Amino acid sequence: MKSHARDVNLPPPKAPSQPKAKRNPPVPARAEKPTMGLVSSKNYITANAIEAILSQPKGRTGGEERWTTRKVTPLSQLPPRVWGARARRMRHDLLI
User: How far separated are the first and last CA of the chain, in Å rounded?
Assistant: First the structure.
């Protein structure tokens, strides 16, 4: 058996049926001069601070329970292996 005997021969690629749309504007020519005196009256620092203050905090969903507000099960509802270990530890701490 020769090498590459089982390879699939693909047909040559065709031209795309729909050309891709250009996303960015073209680069300005080297001889093109920038517009001078273009000034903005917007204060970007205060605008960003106001936007950050008024926006909702990221990453929090309403249905998620946080560990600080989680209900703690009382000692009477814990399984015996857990409260037995706690009792043994408390007795051990009293002896020390």
Answer: 81
> Longest C-alpha distance within the chain, in Å?
90
94: region left, alpha or beta (phi > 0 left; psi from -120 to 50 alpha): alpha
Give the tens place of pLDDT for each residue, 82-95. 777 878 888 888 88
Closest CA to 53 of 61, 41, 63, 45: 45
Q: pLDDT (tens digit, 9 = 90+) per residue, 23-62?
A: 898 899 999 998 888 889 999 999 999 999 999 877 766 6
- 75: burial class by Cβ within 10 Å (0-12, 13-18, 19+)? exposed
Residue 58 C-alpha from the chain's centroid = 10
